[in-house]
Write a structure and sequence with these properties.
Helix content: 40-55%
Number of strands: 4
Distance between the termini: 94 Å
Structural class: alpha+beta
Strand order of the largest sheet: 1-2-3-4
Shape: rod-shaped
Order of helices and strands: EEEEH
Number of helices: 1
Strand content: 15-25%
Bound molecules: zinc ion
Number of domains: 2
Radius of gyration: 30 Å
Length: 89
């Protein structure tokens, strides 16, 4: 099988990779790469998962800050109301 002509990242040569199972093997330096690197297989689920995790962390932080602001706001409001009520008497 010589259907995968591409640049080998290891030896920087344009080579015809040999298919070996689920790997492309460079005939010059012998490095093996998963077929998904050149193939049409869907890519980088790990990165998408990482981005999604970052998004989740951002949301959690956002709501944590929001919750803290709301609690402080309610406390200030409550204290203010108590102060106003007390000052009327
Ligand atoms: Zn190579």
């Amino acid at each position: 099988m010589h259907d995968t002509r591409a640049l080998c990242p290891a030896c920087k040569n344009i080579v015809e990779f040999e298919r070996r199972g689920s790997f492309n093997c460079c005939p010059i330096c012998g490095s093996q790469y998963p077929l998904a690197k050149w193939g049409d297989t869907p890519l980088k689920p790990a990165k998408e998962r990482g981005a999604f995790a970052d998004f989740l962390i951002f949301i959690v932080k956002f709501f944590a800050v929001l919750g803290a602001i709301v609690i402080v706001g309610i406390a200030v409001l409550f204290a203010g109301c108590m102060f106003i009520l007390n000052s009327h008497h």
